[in-house]
Design goal:
The complex is a heterodimer of chains A (about 500) and B (about 290).
Chain A (H helix, E strand, L loop, with lengths): L5 H17 L6 H6 L10 H4 L12 H9 L8 H5 L6 H9 L3 H9 L5 H7 L11 H5 L9 H14 L15 E5 L3 H12 L3 E5 L8 H4 L8 H13 L3 E3 L10 H6 L5 E4 L5 E2 L12 E3 H8 L19 E5 L3 H12 L4 E6 L10 H10 L2 E4 L1 E8 L5 E14 L5 E5 L5 E4 L2 E4 L3 E2 L3 H5 L24 E3 L2 H4 L4 H20 L1
Helix pairs in contact in A: 1-4, 4-6, 6-7, 6-10, 7-10, 8-10, 11-20, 15-16, 16-17
Chain B lengths: L1 E8 L4 E7 L1 H6 L5 E5 L8 E9 L4 E7 L3 H7 L6 E2 L1 E6 L10 E7 L3 H13 L3 E8 L8 H7 L2 E6 L6 E2 L3 H9 L6 E5 L2 H11 L6 E4 L15 E4 L2 E4 H4 L2 E3 L5 H8 L3 H22 L3
Parallel strand pairs in B: 8-9, 8-12, 9-10, 10-11, 12-13
Antiparallel strand pairs in B: 1-2, 1-6, 2-5, 3-4, 3-7, 4-5, 13-16, 14-15
Classes of the chains: A alpha/beta (about 500), B alpha/beta (about 290).
Bound molecules: flavin-adenine dinucleotide (2 copies), iron/sulfur cluster (2 copies) and FE2/S2 (inorganic) cluster.
One iron/sulfur cluster binds next to α8 and α10 of chain A.
Chain lengths: ~500, ~290
């Protein structure tokens, strides 16, 4: 996949759609499979690496209509099995092919509350699109129906055409629910519980709402206006949003339940604690967790130099350690902040990278250098404690192990030095211990995540949990799915 | 929104502010801090210790030194103004019990964070020797409060303009050598002072608590920007601290990290000076 201009993509789609419209017969299976997958239009790489606007521009209507024709409306719906929340995918795509966009959004919203967000950030190639029949026929899951792009198209259409209906809220029940954390899990619980007429208060530690969607995922991938819109909807539904409130510190769970009159609590505090490599030199100046780097850039707006009070380093050569979405975001943010060279160091091969395929491709196009089968073993600095280079070790794929996977093994004596002034560690996050520290009855697993049953109920009565605090670092859609289940359980509890 | 209720200038660069924050006033314990930001969109989040609290008024007291752009902006707020964001109480509270004889050492602005700890220790029945150090007499803050709480107050200045002409480590060493050796030391002030206080008490095996002032962003354990090495392990000051055993802290590493943003901080200050030169000259001596 190489870069193609949006104008060209739109023209091709227009021609194709016109041709399809002229056909009198119904499209056959093989005709549909033969239609070219519609690429996502994007800002040119050399332009976008100098700005923070969204990279992927979204389908034009012609593209959406052509892409929708590729769907075979399979009876067995394998795609639906791949979607963690089970959106009725063929139904919404059929609606798009008939030009019924409002209907399409309605179908999605029966199961997913945040389609504009999930359409953008879901790792579709491992979820709904992994199992799509078209991809199976073409023997390439990357050629599956672009379900996520279609989802984004209708969600954006709804927003831009001003037809977003406020969810109906039932009359007040007099019951109160506290939601802790305003990430996707918390937001979804707030909406679903509020709809039943219960009073909902969302407590957020930061001064702004949205969780990782705000401080982690950068503007160029998920415009903050979209997240703000969802928050606004909640506000209009009568949800109370309280910023600068750290549960466990400002008030404890016990106080909320026993003194402040909350009938139930949902804990959606995310996987906040950054992992470090525990290698020499990690405390040098210029070494950051991706969380810190991205928070400075996104939430504190350090990219608006001269306006923002929060500083961020001016880097020339940056090494990013890791291969997930977080690593891609950090690498691409560094480019946008003016770094001359960004080197992404990953221990395995590209196939194993947990990042979304589209983000990896975008990062490459923008000029991020990929160092695969390599790992950083030490970080070196000068006498003032500033980072000057990293020492890397090369790996090769070993014999397949019991599971058939070829694990990377270090090549002895292959150490080499790469001069850098900044190192961003993006090797994952674990759960924030804050609530656990102040609520001993909440049981946690070996990994520090909260123990919860399939409805999200924790080991403490009336306290539910979901999202990354239960799953470990996962995805927006999984957090949302868990939120919906917990909300249903809370609503049931309060109905008794 | 947290309203400023009162503002007082304690010395040339040190200010005291009482700020409306009823929930924090109720929850806070000695040793804890808040993060605040002056501007909702562009502000920096800076940590300040809760120096005191009044649950009836629903307020907390902050005592801060004007060092850079944000503390300067803060110093310009007047009663009635609001602080855009204020969150807390953060950090682990000081472990307080009756240790017996405790020596508390405050250097410069460090006397402010020491104040609630001293109050707690006093209430728990400890006998307190308080050593207050400053460059000169004008920089000594909260002297009356310290006198009221101390069983024995020792003041030192670098230039001898008040109390003894000495560094705080001198009376601290004498105390450790004396038959009245303290059971615990608490030292809060500039990193270099905390480092040398810890070195002073080490040979006498007097346990020494220090409160670290690393750079912070979120204050909830999310970014790792506040990390320090303590006893060979990486700790996050905002959730594992801010107090640590001074004999285990890698002060040299921490002091280097505090320099990380020097160029940017200087830029911010220069920018601030350009914007405020006229206002500043008219306010300097309020
Ligand atoms: C850089 C980055 C890129 C990512 N990219 C993708 C992607 O492309 N696709 C995808 O699907 N997923 C992605 N993820 C993962 C995804 O963002 C998370 O799985 C998801 O946000 C988890 O949602 P959550 O609601 O559980 O928690 P979070 O979004 O983490 O929100 C938790 C919120 O709780 C608040 N909080 C924590 N403790 C307290 C407390 N004690 N009191 C009050 N509030 C508290 C936090 O401040 C935060 O706002 C990415 C993550 C990161 C960091
Ligand atoms: C737990 C804790 C409690 C503190 N309590 C007090 C207090 O009660 N009174 C007081 O006067 N100061 C206190 N400090 C220090 C105070 O936070 C800094 O002086 C303040 O952040 C400086 O901000 P500035 O923009 O005015 O200065 P800047 O120009 O940004 O920096 C000046 C100096 O402050 C340090 N600094 C900068 N940003 C931060 C940051 N985000 N966090 C910590 N240090 C920073 C820098 O290393 C530099 O040396 C405390 C710090 C911590 C970590
Ligand atoms: S929510 Fe995600 S997984 Fe489900 S259909 Fe949409 S893009 Fe696919
Ligand atoms: S599997 Fe693919 S082709 Fe079949 S219904 Fe789902 S999206 Fe359409
Ligand atoms: S300030 Fe971010 S982890 Fe401590």
């Amino acid at each position: 996949m190489s870069y193609q201009s949006p104008v060209l993509l739109a023209e091709e789609a227009r021609t194709l759609r016109a041709q399809l419209a002229q056909r009198s017969d119904e499209l056959k299976r093989k005709d549909r499979v033969a239609l070219p997958m519609q690429e996502m239009p994007a800002q040119p790489p050399e332009v976008r690496r100098g700005n923070t606007s969204e990279v992927a521009l979204g389908y034009c209507e012609d593209q959406a209509r052509v892409e929708a024709e590729r769907c075979l409306a399979c009876k067995k719906k394998p795609c639906v099995d791949g979607c963690p929340v089970g959106i009725d995918i063929p139904a919404f795509i059929t609606a798009i092919s008939q030009g019924e966009y409002q209907l399409a959004v309605g179908i999605i919203k029966q199961t997913s509350l945040l389609p504009a967000i999930c359409g953008r950030v879901c790792p579709q190639e491992t979820q709904c699109q992994a199992t799509c029949t078209v991809g199976t026929i073409l023997k390439d899951p990357e050629q599956s129906v672009a379900i996520g792009r279609l989802e984004r198209f209708v969600a954006d259409w709804e927003r831009e055409n001003g037809e977003v209906a406020l969810p109906a809220v039932k009359p007040d029940t007099g019951r109160k629910v506290a939601v802790i954390g305003s990430g996707p899990a918390g937001l979804v619980v707030a909406a679903d519980v509020r709809r039943e007429g219960h009073a909902v208060t969302v407590f957020e530690a930061f001064h702004k709402f949205g969780g990782v969607m705000l401080y982690g995922i950068p503007e160029f991938r998920l415009p903050k206006a979209i997240v703000a819109r969802e928050i606004d909807t909640l506000r209009q539904m009568g949800v109370q949003l309280v910023p600068n409130f750290v549960v466990g510190r400002t008030r404890t769970l016990h106080q909320l339940l026993n003194e402040d009159g909350y009938d139930a609590i949902f804990v959606g505090t995310g996987a906040g604690l950054p992992k470090f490599m525990h290698i020499e030199g990690e405390d040098l100046i210029g070494v950051f967790s991706a969380n810190e780097y991205l928070t400075r850039a996104n939430l504190m707006r350090a990219y608006e130099k001269g306006k923002a009070a929060t500083p961020i380093v001016s880097s020339r050569r940056v090494a990013v350690l890791g291969g997930g979405n977080v690593a891609m975001d950090a690498a691409r943010t560094a480019l946008r902040l003016g770094a001359e060279e960004v080197h992404l160091v990953y221990r395995r091969t590209e196939k194993e990278m947990p990042a979304r395929v589209e983000e990896v491709a975008h990062a490459r196009e923008e000029g991020v250098n990929f160092h695969l089968l390599q790992n950083v073993t030490r970080i070196l600095g000068d006498e003032t404690g500033r980072t000057t280079s990293v020492e890397c070790l090369r790996y090769e794929l070993g014999e397949p192990d019991a599971s058939g996977r070829r694990r990377p093994v270090p090549i002895e004596g292959s150490e080499f030095n790469m001069p850098v002034d900044t190192v961003i560690v993006a090797i994952g996050n674990t759960s924030n211990p804050l609530i656990k520290q102040t609520t001993p009855e909440l049981e946690t697993t070996r990994w520090g995540t909260l123990v919860a049953d399939e409805n999200g109920l924790t080991t403490m009565p009336r306290v539910f949990a979901g999202g990354d605090i239960v799953l470990g670092a996962a995805t927006v859609i999984l957090a949302m799915g868990q939120g919906r289940k917990a909300a249903a359980a809370i609503n049931q509890l309060l109905a008794q | 929104m947290n309203r400023v209720l009162a503002r007082e200038q304690l010395s040339n660069d040190v200010f005291l502010m009482r700020v409306e924050a009823p929930l924090i006033a109720q929850a806070r314990q000695p040793g804890q801090f808040i993060l605040l930001s002056i501007d909702q969109d562009y502000g920096e989040r800076i940590p300040l210790t809760i120096a005191d609290a009044d649950t009836e008024e629903g307020s907390i007291t902050l005592i801060f030194q004007r060092v850079g752009a944000t503390t300067r902006q803060l110093a310009q707020l007047a009663p009635g103004d609001s602080i855009a964001a204020l969150v807390g109480p953060l950090g682990l509270p000081t472990h307080i019990e009756n240790f017996g004889h405790v020596v508390c050492v405050g250097g410069g602005i460090g006397v402010a964070p020491l104040h609630p700890i001293i109050q707690g220790l006093k209430a728990a029945g400890n006998r307190l020797t308080i050593i207050v150090g400053a460059r000169n007499r004008d920089l000594i803050i909260l002297e009356d409060r310290m006198r009221a709480l101390a069983d024995n107050l020792i003041i030192c200045t670098d230039d001898g303009s008040a109390g003894r002409k000495a560094l705080v480590t001198e009376p601290l060493r004498e105390l450790c050598e004396s038959p009245d050796r303290p059971d615990l030391a608490v030292a809060i002030g500039p990193p270099i002072m905390m480092k040398f206080c810890s070195e002073t008490t080490r040979p006498f095996a007097v346990k020494t608590l220090v409160s670290l002032n690393t750079i912070m962003v979120d204050g909830t354990g999310m970014c790792g920007g506040c990390r320090v090495t303590v006893g060979g392990q990486t700790k996050f000051v905002c959730v594992d601290g801010p107090e640590f055993d001074g004999h285990l802290v890698d002060f040299d590493g921490m002091m280097k990290r505090l320099q990380a943003y020097r160029p940017q901080e200087k830029d911010a200050l220069d920018r601030w000076h350009q914007d405020h030169t006229c206002r500043l000259t008219s306010q300097e001596n309020t």
